[in-house]
Design brief:
alpha+beta; hpI Integrase, Chain A; three-stranded antiparallel sheet; 8 strands; 48% helix
Length: 410
């Protein structure tokens, strides 16, 4: 394709600010009369510089080395111009300068897209989600430094091998502070976040092809922990001397009977509790995670817990409906509570949400569509993760079927 732009490249000097005899060497790119200058970070003296040739005078070793460098700079800038011509993009002095310096989109790096994503998405994504992205970012930094010995890497260099090596690094990473290494699903979550960031790079046209094109995330299905009716009764019937333990127990049980997640219970206020269409108390709120509207009729036991703390004179809850500690502290206390109750399974605060979906609602015949609404799920398939068909429920359903078949035979 013919190009009508005028292009000129000049190597020149400019007097140093503090010393008029010392010159700083520059490259000036001119396209259609518009200039862009690059300081080459090299210096010479007035007597050694040849204005006409744009090079150092003489045949000394120092002069030869500096002139060789200037020749390389000249050739690299000319090449940058030729590449832009082949790409059929708008040619400007600034575009040529950016291509030479590796600052244009053709030289965007992995950390560039990570920074762009985390900067632009922090107002759109929830704090908990952003916390996970920052965790993935830290692993990327460690992988680049420890495995590749690089401060950063260009996006166009990312491929299947890079992703596979990063996966292996995540699986084998040993933290300085003793803790569990990444599980399979934990590793997949980090890779999923990296994949989303690289998809953004593709949309921004920072990279031509998605490096994850031939890679498939491999999540393992896990059994979600929940409390049985007996285990729930054990916690309800056990009292604790410490005020903190008693409060954590009550808040946990409240979540078991409402299905609210930790953050939704923490943010629950008395203003979100109203008389519903049936004349009973309902919770009207929005899920922090999905922003889905949630309307939950209060069961008797959940209502009793709210009344307990509304009558507590010593508490200072401001507008909060319940005294909720930090998630870490809640889970620490729950370990002690479940151990005291003889419950050996691993229980976290989120177990309450699984318990509501499984033991409280689905196993008692509440339709999955209704449970989905109360849990604030936007898709029914999400609720199906919680849908436990318990042996007891299977037995009851089959007994009903046998009775029906017997009556039909009679």
């Amino acid at each position: 394709m013919r190009n009508s732009n005028t292009f000129k490249l000049l190597i020149f000097t400019r007097a140093h600010t503090n010393d008029s005899t010392r010159l700083t060497i520059y490259a000036r790119i001119t396209v259609n009369g518009k200039r862009a200058e690059i300081s080459l970070k090299r210096y010479t003296t007035v007597n050694d510089w040849d204005d006409k040739l744009g090079r150092i005078k003489g045949n000394t070793q120092k002069a030869k080395l500096l002139n060789s460098y200037l020749d390389e700079v000249y050739a690299s800038i000319m090449d940058a111009h030729k590449v832009l011509l082949r790409e059929d993009v708008t040619i400007t002095a600034q575009a040529i300068k950016a291509r030479y310096l590796g600052q244009d989109e053709g030289h965007k790096t992995l950390l560039d897209i990570v920074k762009y994503h985390n900067t632009t998405q922090h107002l759109l994504l929830k704090p908990g989600t952003m916390k996970n992205y920052h965790s993935t970012e830290r692993y990327i930094h460690k992988f680049l430094n420890e495995q590749l010995n690089l401060p950063d890497i260009q996006l166009k260099r990312l491929n299947y091998r890079f992703i596979s090596d990063f996966e292996h690094y995540l699986r084998s990473y040993t933290p300085k502070v003793p803790r569990k290494t990444c599980s399979n699903n934990g590793t997949m979550k980090h890779l999923e976040r990296l994949m989303k960031m690289l998809n953004l790079a593709v949309k921004l046209e920072w990279v031509a092809q998605d490096p994850f094109k031939n890679y498939k995330l491999r999540f393992e299905k896990t059994e979600r922990s929940y409390l049985t009716k007996r285990e729930l009764s054990l916690i309800e019937e056990t009292t604790f001397n410490g005020t903190g333990y008693e409060r954590v127990k009550d808040v946990f049980l409240f979540s078991c009977y409402t299905g609210l997640s930790y953050i939704d219970v923490k943010q629950l206020t008395t203003e979100q509790i109203h008389i519903g269409i049936d004349g009973n108390l309902w919770i009207y709120t929005k899920r922090e995670k999905t922003n889905e509207t949630v309307k939950i009729p209060l069961l008797t036991k959940a209502k009793a817990i709210l009344e307990k703390y509304s009558e507590e004179s010593e508490k200072v809850l401001e507008e909060s409906a319940l005294p909720v500690y930090s998630n870490q502290k809640m889970n620490q206390y729950l370990k002690v509570i479940t151990k005291a109750c003889g419950i050996r399974k691993r229980v976290t605060f989120h177990t309450a949400r699984h318990t509501f979906a499984t033991t409280i609602t689905l196993s008692n015949g509440v339709p999955i569509e209704t449970v989905s609404k109360m849990l604030g799920h936007s898709k029914l398939t999400t609720t199906q993760i919680y849908a436990r068909v318990l042996e007891q429920k299977v037995g009851e359903d089959m007994q009903m079927l046998m009775a029906k078949l017997e009556s039909q035979e009679k």
